[in-house]
Amino acid sequence: MNSHKDMPVDDEKDWILFQLLEGDLSPEEETEVRKKILLDQEWALAWEQMQAVVLDASEEQGLSPTQKRTLIKSFPLFGASWQRWAAAAVFLIIAGGAWFFMDSNEFPVTKDMVRESQQDDIIPLNTVTDTLLPIKETDQHSNQVTNKRQNIIKKDFAPRSDNAIPEVQFAAEPVHMHTRFGMDQIRFPLHENQHVSMPEPLKVKLRVNYHPRITEPLVIKQSITRIQQRINREIYALSAPRLQVRRKQEGLLPVFELAFHSAGYEAVARLELKQEIIKPLNKSSHE
Amino acid sequence: MTHSEYNQAVHQWSDHLYRFLRKSIKDEDVALDLVQDAFEALWLNRDGVAIESAKAWLFKVGYRKMIDFIRKHKNQVQMETGELKTMTAQVNQYHGLKPIINQALNQLNEGQRTAILLRDYEGYDYRSIAEITGMSEATVKITLFRARQKLKNYIGSLDKVL
Questions:
Q1: Residue A121 CB: number of other CB atoms within 10 A?
Q2: Strands, E, within A118-236: which ranges?
Q3: How much is the ipTM here?
Q4: pLDDT for A99-123, tens place per residue?
Q5: Lowest CB count within 10 Å: A247, B13, B42, B76, which one?
């Protein structure tokens, strides 16, 4: 058998059966080996044992969904730098436009939006009557459109006693001021009696329970990166959907600042590590 | 590799990489750390890695980090008494060859264990295993043979005892 020439091992039978298992034999060689397996009990037993040691990955457990989620990179709102600027510009335009209209206390009425109506039940807006254009009797389509618009005006904007233009109604939703997307301040339209709240970080002492099977002290023998990863995993397993872990260097000592949101509350914690510095022996001390 | 492709790689290959490292290191937490390290490295180097070669890249990085870890902690012994008791119970009850093969895997050295895990779990050929481990193809073949022979002889010795 040609495979014998390449055999750098002592056990010929095992080598041939290994090649049969790995599919490294030619068709003729394979036929020959299979005949031997059928006819020789020793070869048959050895072949059975060789096949039995092929590992099966399907029986092994993979990562849990929670563990896999820690590897996923979520998409940032602003991607590449030009996209970031474009998105920020669009956001500012929309926010600025909304602020302009809402803050100016004016209803954006133009001449084309209002037509003088011939119906008696329409309540005119006095301040815009001067700008009303007369409706042509032959313009039936305009009449229909105007009637519809006047009905809307009557329903939603009843005039006030002083005949001033009515204000646009805002929902009394609370405005939450916070820092997002790297912008220090976002301007929201504020009105009287509108509730504004600020997040109040709670300083709590975090106790992180590490896996009990770890025998060595984490501080000395684990790398800082590994500690950071373990903190992420442990707290993430507590169903905390958002965690920020920031590492700072204060002198020689690393410090972790953690902030996470879970079950409607926000917590900030500080984890300080003590590091034992082993100074190398000076040669002069031995002389 | 785009952002989406990276996340796709996480969904496709994180289980595979974890199984391989878990079986090699025999420590769940360390295996998780190494998986995170490997994917973090992939994220940082995503511009230079195509999605088609992401799996091989991940295994190469994961393998190297595993070797670094093993060499660094060579003198430390971690007792996983919980796991040992479970395995003993399974052998006594004889739930198939899986626990016996798990014990047999512990008899292999790092190279042999890596070669057989990459071959059987991931279906890599000799050339791919050589790329991941840095061995030559001929060395991979011999290493794989030695691994299978050891496992086969371990099972054979148990048969004689039983």
A1: 8
A2: 175-176, 196-197, 202-203
A3: 0.77
A4: 555 544 344 433 333 343 333 334 4
A5: B76
